[in-house]
Please model this.
Amino acid sequence: MKSTYKLSSKSDMKQYAKDLEQRIKDAAIEEMMSRMYDVTCPTCGTSVKVPVGKSLCPKCGEEIDLQLDIKT
Ligand SMILES: [Zn+2]
Model:
């Protein structure tokens, strides 16, 4: 990505808008990936907070695989 943009250039402004959109998307995805989610354990039914990915249920010790459906 370019670090400088000519504000007078139409194509540069287009590129700037595109880059900005991408940056916002990336930040949003990063935020979603780093937070904890309330889920119900599929094995024991306990409400647990887990991060995205694989983690173990604190109650039954079974694996909870949380996948986010992120559209990019
Ligand atoms: Zn469980």
